[in-house]
């Protein structure tokens, strides 16, 4: 049976009146609990959660708004499950934020885990993050026309293994299950093989010599052991359907290959390989290591009182930043938060991404990628110095104003061939700096539209104007650092793609709440909403003809006390 208490419902008597002093109430409203209670709680996806329960049959659920809110608070406060349960039971900050009476409340760890699973199944973390972001942007009047984009690496709750240890741990896990469920098959294995993987994970291969050749030979031995086990149990349904066997098989074919019955360990495997059997979804980034990452877009308009994260796109670590630009813009467009200018670093600002963003009306601002097919010496002449018709891609004239003998654009290849007269180029004072080359017809210049655009961007980024404009992008590094310090985003308490993505999204939603709670405008809105309920109740009660004078006077006294308690009340619109 569903139990839902609408956070907008006005209570006849405020249960916190008897436990809060004016100063303690002010501290609640000035911090995140006030924002959560009066702004965020009503945004919890209770309708989606309630679909899993019968409206009338069965035991009543926990109050759904409070439980959904607890999941969000648990993540951005970086609490364990036990800490979250204690907060729900005893913490007055949490009671106020979740619209609970200031008494003890019982909730079990199994109940908490059940609601977390419901959030995962229905992808409600993404919905919650989007709803909170849109609401905060709206009520704070955040300007979204300028945003910055970056990614940050995230470690899940798993150990980091080298290749030999990774294969060894996979074998050890399989042998442990084989011993438990197929003792006879386990006893048939060679004793030396069994003893090799008998020590604990931390002591596994501890007696191996550390020189390079010894480590190479031992890695080969482990690979051959893995290949032997895969062949022995490949046709045994009792064992080859287990997750430990599948993990061992996947790791083997990612790390090794077989040539004419000989096992060879691959020199390089790439990043899209399993990093730990306990978290098969995690991948590898060559610069930052195993785990996950999240693409973050944040407002950066200088007139904003605070900057909010408008989009969070969780990914595995192997995903390149280059492909993330369009996905982030898709998400921003879907939520109605698309900017006019997006500041990003080199990896995001390929020519293809710049053109795709321009089609959406977004200017992607960032340095040109290294290795572009343009002259990187900005002091030399390049394609950008030629007068080129952007529609036809034909050269109108050279940097000195001379017209070409011919300029023909080949649409299938996208290249334009421009021929300059020999008499003109041979006598030109800029011949050594010019990119034209001697050819049979004279002097030729080949270029594409991409080269022309990249040359123009390269020339622009060398200017002081670009540097001053682009400087604002660096602020997102502070956001990445703050997220990891404040919410625990750097190393999560969970592993596995669904739970990791759930945790990332709720932590970032909580970061926006913490950012918003320090805004003057947000505090004014929270004060106004807190007082509005008190005002309307007292306004109606004082006009009840059946009320005794003494009762009406007491209500009036309490009402005036609240008005004095919140000095800003008289300055705020009740409709805020």
Can you tell me about this structure?
It is a single chain. With 576 residues, the chain is α+β, with helices and mostly antiparallel strands. The chain has 23 helices and 14 strands. It has helices at 22-30, 32-40, 46-50, 64-76, 81-90, 92-97, 109-121, 124-140, 163-181, 183-188, 191-196, 212-232, 237-240, 243-255, 324-334, 351-359, 422-425, 449-461, 464-470, 475-487, 497-516, 520-541, 549-565, and strands spanning 146-154, 256-259, 262-265, 283-285, 289-299, 309-316, 341-343, 363-365, 387-388, 395-397, 406-410, 415-420, 437-439, 442-448. Strands 1, 4, 5, 6, 7 and 8 form a six-stranded mixed β-sheet that branches. Mean pLDDT is 89; it is low at 565-576.
Question: Could you write a compact summary of the structure shown?
Answer:
With 576 residues, the chain is an alpha+beta fold. Helix content is 46%, strand content 12%.
Cα-based radius of gyration, to the nearest Å: 32 Å
> Spans of 5+ residues with little confidence (pLDDT < 50)?
565-576
By secondary-structure content and strand pairing, the structural class works out as alpha+beta
Give the beta-strand count. 14
Mean residue pLDDT:
89
How much helicity do the residues have?
40-55%
User: Hey, roughly how much beta strand do the residues contain?
Assistant: 5-15%
Principal-axes shape call: flat
SS field, number of helical segments: 23
| Terminal residue distance | 35 Å
Main β sheet profile: 6 strands, mixed
